[in-house]
Design goal:
CATH class of the largest domain: Alpha Beta
Number of strands: 10
CATH superfamily of the largest domain: P-loop containing nucleotide triphosphate hydrolases
Helix content: 40-55%
Shape: elongated
CATH topology of the largest domain: Rossmann fold
Structural class: alpha/beta
Distance between the termini: 50 Å
CATH architecture of the largest domain: 3-Layer(aba) Sandwich
Strand order of the largest sheet: 6-7-8-3-9-10
Number of helices: 13
Strand content: 15-25%
């Protein structure tokens, strides 16, 4: 079964094409590597898959479905209300002084209750008068601008990282992003946030549900730390860990979301040879536990040692895809990394 399918993914930033027409498929419980020289577009591809960037074109599917909000009646109503509010605001802004005069000043009487009903009626009449005297185009333009802005905002937020995470996709980053002041257990608990169901009032009133959930997730956090070999440091501050162990903690936090797919962005960066061997073992254990692994990595020993299939990028383009043996023997891949000899 297919865990991830990327179809003709293209990402443009103005005139710069960072990723162009990249297509690949990752099977379930597979270790899939994305490699290429610096600037090849690997992290941009990850960002496009996880909702940080919106692909300019192409589609990403997880377990056979696209993860994005669908257009609904509720969305249409929200866009229409935004358009109406902006149209009204534009009309009021056209001549706010006359409206204030007609609705407030003309109806105010000293030491008398303010006539709200009459004021509202006069406000409506004043708005109708503005419409008849040329304000209709202002209202129309304001409504179009407001509705268009609401539509663009919905389009940009229909495929966000939180939706991707809830769909069973977790990731780590090239630069470690831990909460250094928090303990290891607390960092792992952060990754469980979208799985927690005890709400605001349960936490405020310290209801039994809150305590039961807290105990359950704390126990699960310790199990994950045991899985990555950090249980003996569970109460240490994350900032006190050496670099290699912080990478392990970041993987534990990603696994806390119970993902079907985990994306690792250069997990071996900064590690020594011994730590890299341990990381290879951990990646295999993650796969054997039932989680599909997609990784970006420059360390070829790790890539060739754990990957089932490899995708090679150069200048944002896909130049090869296949097994480690096929990639190792591919002249285009050798050229991308080592260049070609010039004979004059």
């Amino acid at each position: 079964m297919t865990a991830l399918r990327a179809s003709a993914i293209t990402v443009r930033f103005g005139g710069l094409v960072a990723v162009q027409d990249v297509t690949f498929t990752v099977g379930e419980k597979q270790i899939y590597a994305v490699i290429g020289p610096n600037g090849a577009g690997k992290t941009t591809l990850f960002n496009a898959m996880t909702g940080i960037y919106e692909p300019t074109s192409g589609e990403v599917q997880f377990a056979g479905r696209s993860v994005c909000l669908t257009f609904s009646t509720r969305v249409a109503v929200r866009i229409a209300l935004s358009a109406l509010a902006c149209a009204l605001s534009s009309l009021i802004a056209l001549n706010v002084q006359d409206l204030w005069q007609a609705t407030i000043i003309d109806n105010y009487q000293y030491a008398q209750p303010f006539p709200w009903v009459e004021s509202a009626h006069d406000c409506f009449d004043a708005l109708v008068g503005l419409m008849r005297s040329g304000g209709a185009w202002t209202a129309i333009l304001g409504g179009v601008a407001g509705g268009g802005a609401a539509a663009v905002l919905w389009w940009r937020s229909r495929r966000t990282p939180d939706l991707i995470a809830r769909a069973g996709v977790a990731r780590t980053f090239q630069n470690i992003r831990l909460f250094n002041e928090l303990s290891l257990v607390q960092n792992v608990l952060v990754g469980m946030d979208h799985r927690m169901r005890a709400g605001f009032w349960s936490a405020l009133m310290r209801l039994p549900r809150f305590h039961d959930e807290r105990k359950h997730f704390h126990s699960e956090s310790v199990e994950l730390l045991t899985f990555v070999g950090l249980a003996d440091r569970a109460d240490y501050a994350a900032g006190s860990l050496p670099y290699g162990l912080r990478r392990r903690l970041e993987i534990a936090r990603a696994l806390a979301a119970k993902p079907n797919i985990i994306l690792l962005d250069e997990p071996a960066a900064g590690m020594n040879p011994s730590e890299i061997v341990d990381l290879m073992t951990l990646i295999r254990r993650v796969r054997d536990a039932g989680t599909t692994v997609v990784l970006i990595e420059h360390h070829m020993r790790l890539v060739m040692g754990v990957s089932d299939r490899i995708l090679v990028l150069q200048y944002g383009r896909q130049i090869a895809e296949g097994t480690p043996a096929e990639i190792r023997a591919n002249p285009a891949c050798v050229e991308a990394y080592l260049g070609t000899e010039s004979h004059g």
